[in-house]
Amino acid sequence: MARPQRVQIREVGPRDGFQNEPEHIPTDDKVRLINALGRAGFTRIEVASFVRPDVIPQLADGVEVLERIEVPDDTKLMVLVPNSKGLDNALKVRDKFHEVAIFVSASETHNKKNVNRTVDETMADNDVMAKRIVAEGLDCAAVIATSFGCPFEGKVELGRVLDLAERFAEAGATEIGFGDTTGMCNPAYASEFFAAALDRLPGVEVTAHFHNTRGQGLANAYAALEAGCASFESSFGELGGCPVPAGSTGNIATEDLVSMFHEMGVETGLDLPRVIEAAREAQTVLGRKLTSHSIVAGPIEWAASTR
């Protein structure tokens, strides 16, 4: 498949990033940062999750954030729900978002540690939720964690992951994201994986979600792009991680991903200097140095005579 010349990037820092940060992030700062991301041109932002506050206290103010943010009208806001109870709570403010993400881990052990249910139990609930989400006129996205490997079980078979993806699509999901939850993917496998996923899921938006745990995130994104993938998720400032297991570092940095794509001539629709500005502001809010490269280096400034 030919390399896409334009890609979609969903910014997941306000949910997937913030939920794993040790610092308490005031609601005012969250609102200000999300508004800055909107000004950078994002048309997809994952904002909140409807998980019990005692489980993820960092996102306990999700409804208030949804009510207060001011982003362009064409920005699609996503929320994540872990189960039918979470969906019930989300639908109480159904007019505040456009997309709902549901999820499962491809490995039994990770799924049990993450949501305390078997994969079959989770998927039974997901089947019900997907139909409810579609009936509400909302977009349903499905996420498969540990798609490229499990820290507890090791290799996860490609066929198993794609079987779960097909089940999600049959239930009504129009987008399926494949998560490298603890950074176990490599570029060669990313190429093989996304070629197979795109072939197996015609008509479904296939999304790549890489973590940079072992420094291979951008290389994996490049390999997925070359395989034909045109949809990605990332987190400004390289925020985030995975609470299971401890030590799993953040998503690939949005500003680094955008910088790479732009230098390759791949359009994103994003204003890179503004993305970097938002990431630098997040660094100020958190009061510590973040790990993206573009925060330090900035965008490449080519001299007119050398390009």
Annotate the secondary structure layout.
Layout: E1 8-11, H1 13-17, H2 27-39, E2 44-49, H3 62-68, E3 76-80, H4 84-91, E4 99-105, H5 108-115, H6 119-135, E5 139-145, H7 158-171, E6 175-180, H8 187-200, E7 205-210, H9 217-226, E8 231-234, H10 254-263, H11 272-286, H12 294-297
Parallel strand pairs: 1-8, 2-3, 3-4, 4-5, 5-6, 6-7, 7-8
GO molecular function: hydroxymethylglutaryl-CoA lyase activity; metal ion binding
Protein name: Hydroxymethylglutaryl-CoA lyase
GO biological process, one term: L-leucine catabolic process
Q: How many separate domains make up the residues?
A: 1
CATH architecture verdict:
Alpha-Beta Barrel
How much strand? 5-15%
Shape: globular
The radius of gyration is 18 Å
> Which CATH top level class fits?
Alpha Beta
What's the number of helices?
Answer: 12
Average pLDDT works out at 95
Number of DSSP strand runs: 8
How does the helix and strand content classify structurally? alpha/beta
Q: Going by CATH, what is the homologous superfamily?
A: Aldolase class I
- Do you know the CATH topology? TIM Barrel
Poorly predicted runs are: none
Q: What percent of the residues sit in helical stretches (DSSP H or I)?
A: 40-55%
What features would you describe in this structure?
It is a single chain. The chain has helices spanning 13-17, 27-39, 62-68, 84-91, 108-115, 119-135, 158-171, 187-200, 217-226, 254-263, 272-286, 294-297; strands at 8-11, 44-49, 76-80, 99-105, 139-145, 175-180, 205-210, 231-234. By secondary structure, it is of the alpha/beta class. The protein has an 8-stranded parallel beta sheet. Strand 7, helix 9 (217-226) and strand 8 (231-234) form a beta-alpha-beta unit. Helix 2 (27-39) runs antiparallel to helix 11, helix 8 packs parallel to helix 9 (217-226) and helix 10 (254-263) packs antiparallel against helix 11 (272-286). The two termini are 28 Å apart. The model has no long low-confidence stretch (mean pLDDT 95).
